[in-house]
Amino acid sequence: MQTLNYKCPNCGATLPYHGESGQMRCEYCDSEFDPEALRQYDEVLKAQTEEPDQPIWEEYQNEGWQDENMGIFVCRSCGAEVVAEETTAATSCPYCGSTTVLSSRLTGVFKPDLVVPFAVGRDAAKQALQKFCKGKLLLSKSFLNETVIDKIAGMYVPFWLYDCDVSADINYRATRVHSYRSGEYQVTKTSHYLVRRAGDFSVQRLPVDGSQKMADAYMEAIEPYDYSKAVDFTSTYLSGYTADKYDVDAEASKPRANERITTSAQQLLRNTVIGYATVVPSGQRIDLRHGSIRYALMPVWLLNTTYRGKTYTFAMNGQTGKFVGNLPVSPARAVTLFGICAVAGGIIAALIALLGRFM
Amino acid sequence: MKRMLSRVCLLLCTLLLMTVFTVGVCAQGDYIDDQADLISDTVEQTLDLHAQRIRTEYGYEIGIVTRNDLAGLLIEDYADNYYENGYYAWNAVFLFVDMGSRETWILTNGDADILFDDGDGLEKLFDSFSDDLRNGQYEQAFSAYYNEIDTALALDRDGQSYSDGYVTEHETDYGSRAPTKLATYIAIGVGVGLVIAGIIFAVCLFGMKTARSKAAAGEYVKPGSFALTHSSDLYLYTTTTRVRIQSNSGSSGRSGGSRGGGGRSF
Ligand SMILES: [Zn+2]
Ligand SMILES: [Zn+2]
Asked: pLDDT at position A4, please?
């Protein structure tokens, strides 16, 4: 005979165990329970009380990048550091366009493991900007005409690629609702469940941008890259381009990787909880193991434009041509669009309702 | 001990037989309970035959109950009690007529609840016999009631809706309701218009700012690597809430659930 006191799954009060057979009743909220269900409930909760282990990532190690023909260029205007061929005449800063740069010898940098070569060129980036601005109802007509493209820079952006095995274990409180009419009353029965799902999966080459200058949102938006075209790195791929020197190391990029992997684990398990009216996660344990890291350079076209004194930045995936950016919303067009849609939608809805009446 | 068991068995068998017998008697007819004496016995028999034919054909029990007095009960409560205390089939439609208060109530149960309570089905059924009832033409009223249900069931069997698009005389009769209706359409128009505009605006805005972070890493999950290692769904307990349904005066219709009904004065 167990002398254990269980907690009421509904209100959290301690349930006295009376020893007699049959249902157990909570004195506070009047819920009734099957003792066997309570025992299992307790077991499931206990299984998850242990804190997850710290994510286990290896420390990134690689040989230094040695190449006499390459140098580090430091922008005197914005402080950006890029790697390019020493012979590159008048290398201008890919971020601010400034031409006043200092160069030094290539030192203290890891040699990249992989590189995804450029597959689309400068002209494609220009055309992509035109195409991106087409059909945007909230964009002022003058934007395309008045915008000046200050600079289109082809750049290799440093990424840390994370591989790992994930074990996730998540509890959910779920309900099923049955509502029916009985005489003068609407009766609603809500059945409560404790749902537990655990699963394993592997993550391959999750990229995290290793450049502080490059906005993470832009870099995540132009994902994904086709890794099947990735090759072992040699300096020749940099010919004609610059490479951003990473300033966020593998260690500092880990939290972002953990974050995205955790969200994916939650999504994968949540998708297996079906047939309930409500599902609320109540506890989780997500373990990351066998984490390995690689360093890669990815091709990006960066477009800096000016429109009416303001700078707008666009980025294009240098391999797939995926183009992203933020356009200014024209207030006049916003008001017009909203007004037209509201009036047209309203008239159509009213007409349909009216027609339905006479049909 | 053995004798005891056999006695219990005998008792149970007797009870079972009695139940079957009672239900059997009921199934043989007697769907017209005319205590208010509104129709002659001959008419009663004719209507009863109609009711039995509907029962054989569709499995629905269609009844009429007339009273001069409901002993202080609301007609809907009286109807519920009457149905629950009789051994009637699950699918049933019963018309209750109280001459004392000059009120009628139609109780629907089982599939009939969906058949008539959805949309204006109940109103249409009432409209088919209300005029005759008001004028004291009880025989015509009750035949019309049976014919109308016959029609509804035939339509339902053919996969058509009995109540779709029916506009009750009530709504068309009252001129005073027209302005309210117009206001309703304007309200629908404004509401739907704003929602549509909001959605289109949001979609357009979404296209203006495409440099957005990604929350998950779904693209980097190794294909086929996901495997559930544990999956359990543990039932804990059930909570029940009861909310009293506000019943409208005049007529009312409800949908969903197994019991429904609506009433009218005549
Ligand atoms: Zn409780
Ligand atoms: Zn610069």
From this structure: 61
With tokens 């601010």, the residue in question is A96
pLDDT reported for residue B18: 43
Determine the residue of chain A that is closest to B244 in CA distance: A185
The mean pLDDT of B214-242, rounded to a whole number, is 89
Give pLDDT, residue A1. Answer: 44
C-beta separation of A173 from A197 below 8 A:
no
What integer pLDDT is reported at residue B119 of this predicted model?
52
Q: How distant is the Cα of B123 from the closest Cα of chain A, in angstroms?
A: 15
Considering every ligand atom, which ligand is closest to the CA of B237?
1
Q: How far is the CA of A176 from the centre of ligand 1 (A)?
A: 19
Nearest to A190 among B226, B227, B239 (CB): B239
Helix/strand/coil for B198:
helix
- Ligand 2 center–CA A78 separation, angstroms: 4
Q: Which of A163, A162, A167, A161 is nearest to A201 (CA)?
A: A167
Closest CA in chain A for residue B212 = A217
Interface of B with A in 18-77 (CB under 8 A): 76-77
Where is mean pLDDT largest: A50-59, B103-112, B170-179? B103-112
Kindly state whether B178 is in contact with chain A, defined as any CB-CB distance less than 8 angstroms. no
Closest CA to B35 of B62, B65, B61: B65
Q: A164: CA distance to ligand 1 center in Å?
A: 42
| Contact between chains at A193 and B235 (C-beta distance less than 8 A) | yes
Distance from CA of B167 to the nearest CA of A (A): 8
Q: Tell me how far apart the alpha carbons of residues A264 and B225 are, in angstroms, rounded to a whole number.
A: 13
Q: Is the peptide bond before B223 cis (omega within 30 degrees of 0)?
A: no
Question: Which helix (H) or strand (E) element contains residue B234?
Answer: strand B227-244
**Is B203 part of the contact surface with chain A (CB cutoff 8 Å)?**
no
List A200's β-bridge partners, or say none. Answer: A167, B227
How many Å apart are CA A336 and CA A343, to the nearest integer?
11
Q: Number of C-alpha atoms within 13 angstroms, CB side, residue B15?
A: 6
Name every residue whose Cβ is closer than 8 Å to that of residue A30 and which is 6 or more positions away in sequence.
none
Fold of B28-164+260-265: Diaminopimelate Epimerase; Chain A, domain 1 (3.10.310)
> Angle at Cα B183 formed by Cα B177 and Cα B188, nearest 5°?
125
pLDDT of residue B170: 42
At A125-177, the pLDDT tens digits run 999 999 999 888 889 888 988 888 888 888 999 999 999 999 999 999 999 98
Neighbours of A302 (CB within 10 A): 22
| Per-residue pLDDT tens over the stretch A238-286 | 888 888 888 888 889 999 999 999 999 999 999 999 999 999 998 899 9
Is the ipTM, as predicted for this complex, more than 0.90?
A: no
* Chain A residue numbers touching B76 (CB-CB < 8 A): 184
Bridge partners of residue A212, in order along the sequence: none
Please give the structure tokens belonging to residue A241: 């381009």
The low-confidence residues of chain A, meaning pLDDT below 50, are 1-2
